[in-house]
């Protein structure tokens, strides 16, 4: 704003007439100086004005006739006219629009008309100047629904709240906005809604230890989750989730799901080594790290890292390898228990005094094993390694020292020869023939072929007499849920898991499979086997594995196997003509899938028949499962879940078994001659029976060195190489021992992360290592904090929220950040009422854990008292917080009521609970109404009221902190401060509300986003674009406001704002889909408010355009012209739209009527110029040539714009100013506002910020009319 | 104590001053409104009783001919001044002058005069419902509040409209008795009284709207549970027999109207209220009717024009829309007539008045307004008649309102521009 203009406005506002003339250059409105007029004006009235009135007006508007309720005869003096200016404003309008005198009456000459107009105008101007700056009558304003909503959102900080969504729609008054007091009514029904709205908001208030906050939700569970999310997002600022990969340490995975909390080593190393940005990194930690990695103090572990750092080559992997070695994680639930861990993340130590090394030898081949000794990076001093008792270990047999291997091989080869030699004779005996065979060798064949029966153990021995819920469910159980159960009733029950009537079900243990075995009492080739498996508890469990097997001695034939998941039954078989010997076994094996042991209840059945006899598990066992185990041929047992099934018999043997002839026995021998490894089951007994000399052996080496051992294939297969390494003597020395299958290429002189370091207890070397490790741990914790907070790694735990963030605090946080984190935690515990919840959680866990573990009572009992005490403490804290919370609500009240509270008010408010306080605050008239104290005489409102005026003008909401501060300091009354604040507020994003409440309401598009007036049949796409149409207008205004553009841009702009959806609607191309500023609109036939789809659609019918509506909109809304009211009794439009007529032709036909043509000549051409847009604002081809009322021929939107800019600019600007002023004051614009409006129009440029400044500096805006002010211009 | 309805035994101790017998069910008032008038040639009725002939607009009401009073020729003088639409509607039920410019001023409507006297001992003194929300703008210097409100609680207060069926239901039946609410209201009443001393006289008037509202809500809370017992009369239902409607606004206009009518009837039937107003749409209405098959655009619904613009055309589709509105009135009358109250039906005990702000939308003419009354006002109005005041003097519509108020024993000296009742009614 120019200095000049400031002076001007203030001059006007204090009514210094001398300046006014000078700045009032428009001839038609130039007032004559008051001094010279006082005497002369009365004479002019008598001489020239009155006669014209008498001749052309008073004929109808006489005291007697009062046509149109207008009596002009009574005005007999200039003074009488000045008392009723409204009447004369109306007269002026009638003259200007040519309404009066009516066409049918006598017409005044152009001169007379000009003279009359000029005189009335001058007289009105005189009155306007005399009263300029009058604040005018402003009725007490209730907050409009929109203001109420915005204010509550700003007050509580939750932008999604919509407490007024079901309130009745506000009416408009004044200059057509919903913020005028006259239209804002109150009623019991509405008051009830306010009360309910206030209660609804207060239910979303979250009580905190240090005050209150607000939530979108009214559910305490959501509040807790919000508090959790706040802490997590605090943590997330400093941590990483580990790049998406899963880090598993000591069996605990660190980064699953909501996990995270890792130290972001990579970003810091990158930043410090010049590869990445320091933005968002903790300067505290950067400094710490830089200094630690640059230090010279010797450190076994850090020195190699420092070397790399100096060369800018320190990689994440270098650090991570040691993090993995030096940290371990444990379950939260175990923390603090006897023998439990102390924390989630704890130091791990790779230091050992001796180390057992193991190597699995797989594959049937010769192996070479290397015993590798390394120096652990501190030189070879004293690094002599003893490798104790190297040996081969396998299940079910004695260990073999490496030294005895040659002897064992020899023994087995001898045994193999013997067995091979006995093949035919052994088989013959087994087939019932006669031959000489060594009894022990025959036994091996018998075992191998399953002729000696099959061992069935361990059988379940514990009886379940009845289930907890049902007497008719009983069975046998083992450890950890292992069980087999029978339902002896006719009922289908859930135990849980469904048991059908008269059925059998079984549950495996996490590490053991349940086996139901049928031991054959018969020998036959014609056995038929069938069965069924069905997971009985699919809503909970993850499924089971199953197998149907025929077991013959050491061999097992698998008939079928699979996984069962979901409640689909799986039919097994039938398998026909199965060969089985007496005492051989048919078994169903149910295994836990993935070692998961919950809800694995599985229904099973097995039926067998040899043609004469039949067996059926359910039928045989369900009535009396407890009769015994075994129960007839049925055996209930378990086996390790991991047990592999023995290989099926080789084909020649299988063939022989079907037909045990000597020829086939010879084939068996041929087979074994080719394929008889020393690890064969037939030799198992030989290995078991081998007894070496029992001597243990040790090897010795000096690190760095490697010992090489050869192990023959025959013995290696399926075994494990084991050796124990230690230092040769107590005292100094440190080594790392490895057993490898590949020889290292060079001697190992450095320290290797991830494998143990052998040092002697208490040695100085050990201390050096420990110190170095501790140094590393302090610098590089794997995790900075426990990001989950709610432990999920344990089925049951007493810990509701677990906090472990010491590393974060120590390494990263400033004091204030640490304080904030503490505050968030205090909030979480308070909001969730954790200590109180813990009391009931404790009881539940206590009951659960001790019901079958009475020994745990001892562990739990000591926790009860502290838990209860913490809850009591918490209740005290809640009580103590009450006062703080009440004060916090008082602070809210001062904001909501937009002024300081009196002591009485504070005391009165504080009597209620915080929630009721808030309900009252938001229902109180101090909140709902914008009350202002009225002085006796017109004068300034106080600073608080001024803050409220400004804030509701620009933001439709309460003052923010800065305005409140300035009000409190009494600075807002300074117009410069006020104007500066307005400028600041224009930049704020809350100015969007001015765009919708003023901009959109002025253009009549406030409701286009929900406009329901379009025919879906004609415009099916309208509903998908209407929100965007309104958004375009809003964004346009926001841009205009924030960037202080000239308001002529509203007409003249070459740009607008579009997203993809709207650009498509307009047929324009943009890149991307988001909202963006788009230039070059004029070239496309749009630009400015004339081309807004929102206005074009709003001023159209349901199925067609309306040049009348659009023309009226241009006339009244944009140009501020007054139109006479439509005549009553206009001709009725034809019943059907005649075919072949365009919308334009239809209207032209209608408007041709003599009654109508006068107005429509003014209105319709504007609309015709916009005919190239359809009824929802899309471009189309149409005849847009037209002639305006004043004879100007134009064609289309572009010409219309140029016409308005050239010929009607003044009217447009005045209309804009009028609307803006009306909106800012919440009333109609009145005569005394005219000088200010004129001043706005007269400026060379019309930047929005300047207009706002003019308004907020004006007396109208800053003052209030006094109680005793005489109102001159009211009727 | 609750007494059952006993046909043979009248036990009611009516405290109302005079007139109706204590045992009789009370007279109820229901005013319904649709904007923009009707088809210019099809709103008429001739003859008497069952012989009455009806214009096509009124045909949906054929079955109620003998309970219908057709009134032609009445008008409001004040509505002839000012603008069309808004200044014809805002005084529909008061006949008061309408303020233009930035102001809002009309007159207290006769339904609200009754609510403040006759209706005040009911839980809900009056239920003011609408099926189209009001229009927040200004049309030719008149606030569109006028074209959206026929019911006015005071000259400056259009009675807020309830648009949501669920909330209308709550209004009638939600238990308002909460001690916490009362404590909040007590407190804000104090706040308001404190504030009142500090604002100007004009503003005090505005603030009194607030004070009265708080007192009213407080009184409801205090009176909750007592309502209806003083009169001794027992309604036919003591609690709602339909479920609370779903939240939100029904998308289908027919569904919306039906729900509102159901609630309105329930309000009468439970004697929760005796005065209701239902604005089916605004004057200047933007409703469309895709659900009604078009005559003029065969195979389609009447969705090509909004109600207001369609009213200018006077065609077959306009007639169809008129009939649609009359069908809603017929549905309402049918529901009321199906409810027995002693020897009469609820319809017989009701004055169901339907009106519009102009005669024909095509002409914007309101020198005679379309008015019908269904029901007998407890035997005080004789149906089956067509009254014609065309060409007669003193044909103020406000006189009809005086007559109707008289049936409810409320007898102001004058109302609007009406000085005396219509003898014929």
Mind sketching the topology for me?
The complex is a heterodimer of chains A (1275) and B (425).
Chain A: H1 3-14, H2 17-22, H3 34-56, H4 78-83, H5 85-97, H6 110-131, H7 145-156, H8 188-202, E1 205-208, E2 211-214, H9 220-238, E3 248-249, E4 252-253, H10 265-272, H11 283-294, H12 302-310, H13 316-326, E5 327-329, E6 345-347, E7 351-352, E8 354-361, E9 367-374, E10 384-393, E11 400-401, H14 405-421, H15 423-430, H16 439-449, E12 462-464, E13 473-477, E14 483-487, E15 493-494, E16 498-499, E17 504-507, E18 512-519, E19 524-535, E20 544-552, E21 555-564, E22 570-580, E23 585-592, E24 602-609, E25 614-616, H17 617-621, E26 634-640, H18 651-658, H19 662-674, H20 684-689, E27 698-702, E28 705-711, H21 713-716, E29 719-727, E30 734-740, E31 757-759, H22 764-779, H23 806-811, H24 815-831, H25 834-850, H26 857-896, H27 903-909, H28 914-923, H29 925-928, E32 939-940, H30 943-955, H31 961-968, H32 975-987, H33 992-1002, H34 1022-1042, H35 1049-1052, E33 1056-1058, H36 1060-1066, E34 1076-1078, H37 1093-1098, H38 1107-1118, H39 1143-1151, H40 1154-1169, E35 1185-1187, E36 1193-1195, H41 1196-1207, H42 1209-1225, H43 1234-1242, H44 1248-1257, ...
Helix pairs in contact in A: 3-6, 5-6, 8-28, 9-24, 15-16, 15-19, 18-19, 25-26, 26-28, 30-31, 30-32, 32-44, 33-34, 38-40, 39-40, 42-43
Chain B: E1 28-33, E2 45-46, E3 53-54, E4 68-72, H1 86-89, H2 110-116, E5 127-130, E6 138-139, E7 142-143, H3 145-148, E8 152-154, E9 157-158, H4 165-173, H5 179-196, H6 201-223, H7 253-269, E10 275-279, E11 289-293, E12 301-302, H8 307-310, H9 316-337, E13 340-341, E14 344-345, E15 350-355, E16 371-374, E17 385-388, H10 397-407
Parallel strand pairs in B: 1-10, 1-15, 4-17, 5-10
Antiparallel strand pairs in B: 2-3, 4-16, 6-7, 8-9, 11-12, 13-14, 15-16
Helix pairs in contact in B: 4-7, 5-6, 7-9
């Amino acid at each position: 704003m120019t200095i000049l203009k400031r002076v001007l406005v203030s001059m006007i506002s204090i009514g210094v007439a001398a300046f006014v003339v000078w700045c009032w250059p428009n001839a038609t409105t130039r007032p004559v100086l008051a001094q010279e007029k006082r005497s002369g004006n009365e004479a002019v009235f008598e001489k020239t004005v009155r006669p014209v009135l008498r001749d052309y007006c008073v004929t109808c508007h006489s005291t007697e006739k009062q046509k149109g309720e207008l009596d002009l005869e009574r005005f007999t003096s200039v003074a009488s006219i000045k008392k009723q200016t409204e009447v004369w404003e109306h007269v002026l309008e009638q003259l200007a629009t040519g309404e009066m005198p009516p066409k049918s009456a006598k017409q005044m000459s152009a001169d007379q008309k000009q003279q009359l107009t000029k005189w009335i105008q001058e007289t009105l101007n005189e009155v306007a100047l005399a009263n300029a700056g009058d604040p005018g009558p402003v009725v007490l304003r209730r907050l409009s629904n929109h203001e109420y909503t915005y204010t509550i959102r700003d007050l509580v900080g939750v932008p999604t709240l919509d407490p007024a969504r079901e309130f009745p729609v506000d009416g408009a008054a004044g200059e057509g906005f919903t913020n005028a007091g006259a239209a804002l009514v109150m009623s019991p029904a509405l008051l009830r809604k306010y009360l309910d709205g206030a209660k609804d908001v207060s239910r979303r208030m979250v009580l905190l230890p240090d005050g209150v906050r607000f939530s979108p939700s009214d559910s305490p569970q959501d509040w807790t989750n919000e508090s959790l999310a706040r802490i997590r997002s605090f943590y997330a600022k400093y941590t990483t989730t580990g790049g998406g990969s899963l880090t598993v340490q000591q069996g605990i995975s660190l980064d699953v799901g909501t996990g995270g909390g890792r130290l972001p080593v990579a970003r810091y190393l990158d930043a410090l080594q010049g590869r990445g940005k320091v933005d968002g990194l903790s300067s505290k930690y950067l400094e710490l790290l830089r200094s630690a990695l640059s230090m010279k103090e010797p450190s076994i572990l850090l020195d190699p890292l420092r070397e790399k750092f100096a060369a800018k080559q320190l990689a994440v992997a270098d650090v991570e390898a040691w993090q993995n070695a030096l940290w371990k994680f444990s379950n939260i639930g175990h923390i603090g228990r006897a023998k439990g861990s102390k924390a989630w993340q704890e130091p791990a130590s790779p230091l050992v005094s001796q180390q057992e090394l193991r190597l699995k030898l797989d594959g049937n081949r010769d192996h070479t094993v290397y015993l590798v000794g390394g120096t652990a990076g501190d030189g070879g001093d004293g690094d002599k390694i003893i490798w104790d008792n190297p040996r081969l270990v396998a299940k079910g047999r004695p260990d073999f020292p490496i030294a005895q291997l040659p002897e064992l091989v020899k023994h087995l080869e001898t045994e193999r020869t013997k067995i091979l030699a006995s093949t035919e004779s052994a088989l013959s005996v087994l087939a019932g023939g006669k031959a000489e065979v060594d009894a022990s060798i025959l036994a091996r064949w018998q075992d191998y072929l399953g002729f000696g029966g099959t061992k069935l153990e361990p059988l379940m021995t514990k009886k379940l007499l009845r289930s907890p819920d049902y007497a008719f469910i009983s069975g046998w159980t083992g450890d950890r849920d292992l069980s087999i159960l029978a339902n002896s009733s006719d009922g289908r029950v859930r135990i849980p898991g469904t048991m059908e009537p008269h059925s059998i079900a079984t549950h495996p243990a996490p590490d053991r499979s349940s086996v139901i075995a049928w031991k054959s009492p018969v020998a036959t080739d014609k056995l038929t086997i069938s069965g069924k498996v069905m997971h009985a508890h699919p809503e909970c469990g993850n499924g089971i594995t199953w197998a149907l097997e025929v077991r013959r001695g050491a061999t097992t034939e698998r008939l079928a196997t699979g996984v069962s998941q979901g409640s689909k039954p799986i039919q097994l078989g039938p398998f026909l003509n199965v060969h089985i010997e007496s005492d051989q076994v048919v078994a169903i094996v149910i295994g836990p899938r993935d070692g998961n042991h919950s809800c694995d209840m599985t229904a099973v059945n097995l039926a067998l028949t040899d043609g004469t006899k039949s067996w059926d598990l359910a039928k045989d066992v369900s009535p009396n499962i407890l009769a015994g185990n075994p129960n007839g041929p049925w055996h209930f047992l378990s086996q390790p879940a991991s047990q592999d099934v023995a290989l099926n018999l080789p084909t020649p043997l299988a063939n022989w078994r079907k037909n045990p002839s000597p020829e086939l026995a010879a084939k068996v021998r041929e087979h074994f001659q080719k394929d008889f490894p020393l690890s064969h089951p037939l030799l198992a007994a030989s290995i078991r029976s081998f007894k070496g000399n029992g001597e243990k052996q040790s090897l010795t080496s000096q690190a760095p060195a490697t010992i090489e051992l050869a192990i023959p294939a025959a013995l290696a297969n399926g075994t494990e190489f084991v050796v124990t390494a230690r230092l040769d003597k107590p005292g100094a020395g440190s080594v790392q021992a490895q057993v490898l299958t590949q020889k290292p290429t060079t001697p190992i002189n450095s320290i290797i992360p991830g494998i143990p370091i052998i040092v002697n207890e208490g040695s100085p070397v050990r201390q050096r290592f420990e110190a170095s490790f501790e140094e590393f741990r302090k610098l590089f914790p794997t995790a900075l904090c426990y990001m989950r907070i709610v432990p999920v790694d344990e089925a049951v735990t007493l810990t509701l929220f677990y906090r472990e963030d010491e590393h974060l605090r120590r390494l990263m946080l400033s004091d204030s950040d640490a304080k904030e984190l503490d505050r968030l935690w205090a909030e979480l515990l308070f909001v969730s009422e954790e200590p109180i919840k813990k009391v009931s959680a404790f009881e539940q866990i206590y009951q659960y854990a001790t019901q079958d573990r009475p020994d745990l009572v001892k562990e739990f009992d000591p926790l009860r008292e502290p838990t209860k005490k913490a809850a009591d403490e918490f209740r005290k804290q809640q009580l103590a917080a009450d006062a703080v919370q009440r004060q916090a609500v008082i602070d809210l009240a001062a904001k909501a009521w937009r002024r300081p509270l009196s002591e009485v008010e504070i005391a009165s408010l504080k009597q209620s609970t915080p929630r009721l306080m808030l309900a009252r605050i938001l229902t109180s008239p101090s909140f709902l109404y914008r009350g202002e104290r009225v002085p006796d005489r017109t004068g300034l409102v106080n600073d608080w009221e001024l803050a409220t005026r400004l804030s509701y003008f620009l933001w439709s909401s309460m003052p923010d902190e800065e305005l409140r501060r300035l009000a409190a300091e009494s600075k807002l009354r300074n117009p410069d401060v006020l104007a500066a604040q307005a400028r600041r507020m224009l930049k704020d994003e809350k100015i969007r509300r001015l765009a919708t409440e003023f901009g959109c309401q002025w253009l009549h598009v406030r409701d286009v986003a929900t406009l329901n007036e379009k025919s879906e049949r004609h415009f099916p796409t309208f509903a998908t674009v209407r929100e965007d149409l309104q958004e375009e207008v809003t964004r346009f205004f926001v841009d205009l406001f924030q960037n202080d553009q000239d308001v002529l841009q509203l007409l003249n702009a070459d740009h607008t704002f579009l997203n993809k959806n709207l650009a498509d609607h307009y047929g324009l191309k943009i890149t991307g889909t988001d909202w963006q500023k788009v230039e070059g609109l004029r070239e496309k036939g749009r630009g400015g408010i004339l081309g807004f789809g929102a206005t074009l659609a709003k001023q159209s019918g349901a199925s067609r355009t309306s040049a009348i509506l659009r023309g009226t909109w241009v006339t009244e809304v944009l140009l501020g012209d007054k139109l006479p009211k439509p005549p009553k009794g206009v001709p009725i439009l034809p019943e059907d739209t005649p075919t072949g007529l365009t919308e334009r032709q239809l209207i032209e036909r209608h408007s041709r009527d003599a009654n109508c043509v006068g107005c429509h000549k003014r209105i319709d051409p504007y609309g015709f110029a916009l005919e190239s847009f359809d009824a929802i604002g899309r471009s189309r081809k149409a005849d847009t040539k037209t002639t305006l009322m004043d004879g100007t021929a134009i064609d289309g939107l572009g010409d219309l714009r140029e016409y308005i800019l050239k010929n009607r600019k003044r009217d447009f600007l005045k209309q804009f100013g009028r609307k803006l002023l009306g909106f800012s004051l919440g009333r109609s614009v009145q005569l005394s506002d005219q000088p200010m409006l004129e001043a706005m129009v007269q400026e060379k440029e019309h930047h929005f910020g300047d207009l706002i400044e003019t308004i907020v500096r004006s007396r109208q805006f800053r003052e209030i009319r006094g109680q005793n002010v005489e109102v001159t211009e009211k009727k | 104590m609750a007494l059952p309805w006993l046909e043979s035994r009248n036990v009611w101790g009516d405290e109302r001053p005079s007139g109706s017998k204590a045992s009789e069910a009370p007279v109820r008032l229901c005013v319904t409104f649709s904007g923009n008038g009707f088809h210019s040639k099809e709103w008429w009725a001739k003859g008497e009783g069952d012989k009455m002939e009806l214009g096509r607009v009124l045909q949906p009401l054929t079955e109620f001919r003998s309970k219908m009073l057709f009134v032609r020729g009445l008008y409001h003088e004040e509505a002839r001044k000012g603008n069309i639409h808004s200044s014809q509607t805002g005084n529909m039920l008061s006949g008061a002058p309408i303020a233009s410019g930035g102001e809002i001023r009309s007159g207290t409507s006769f339904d609200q005069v009754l609510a403040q006297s006759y209706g005040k001992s009911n839980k809900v003194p009056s239920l003011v419902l609408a099926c189209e929300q009001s229009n927040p703008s200004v049309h030719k210097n008149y606030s569109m509040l006028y074209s959206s409100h026929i019911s006015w609680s005071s000259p400056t207060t259009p009675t807020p409209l309830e648009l949501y069926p669920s909330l209308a239901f709550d209004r009638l039946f939600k238990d308002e008795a909460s001690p916490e609410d009362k404590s909040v209201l007590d407190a804000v009443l104090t706040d308001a009284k404190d504030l009142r001393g500090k604002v100007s006289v004009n503003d005090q008037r505005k603030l009194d709207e607030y004070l009265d509202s708080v007192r009213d809500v407080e009184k409801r809370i205090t009176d909750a549970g007592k309502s209806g017992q003083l009169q001794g009369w027992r309604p036919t239902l003591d609690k709602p027999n339909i479920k609370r409607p779903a939240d939100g606004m029904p998308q289908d206009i027919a569904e919306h109207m039906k729900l509102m009518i159901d609630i309105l009837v329930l309000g009468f039937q439970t004697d929760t209220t005796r005065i209701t107003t239902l604005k089916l749409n605004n004057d200047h209405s933007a409703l469309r009717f895709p659900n009604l098959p078009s005559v003029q655009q065969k195979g389609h619904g009447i969705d090509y024009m909004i109600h207001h613009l369609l009213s200018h055309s006077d065609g077959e589709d306009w007639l169809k829309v008129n009939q649609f509105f009359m069908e809603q009135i017929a549905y309402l009358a049918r529901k009321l007539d199906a409810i027995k109250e002693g020897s009469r039906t609820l319809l017989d005990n009701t004055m169901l008045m339907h009106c519009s702000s102009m005669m024909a939308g095509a002409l914007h003419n309101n020198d005679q307004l379309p008015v019908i009354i269904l029901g007998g006002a407890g035997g005080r109005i004789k149906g089956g008649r067509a009254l014609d005041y065309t060409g007669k003097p003193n044909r103020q519509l406000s006189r009809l309102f005086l007559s109707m108020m008289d049936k409810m024993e409320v007898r102001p000296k004058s109302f609007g521009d009406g000085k005396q009742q219509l003898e014929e009614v």
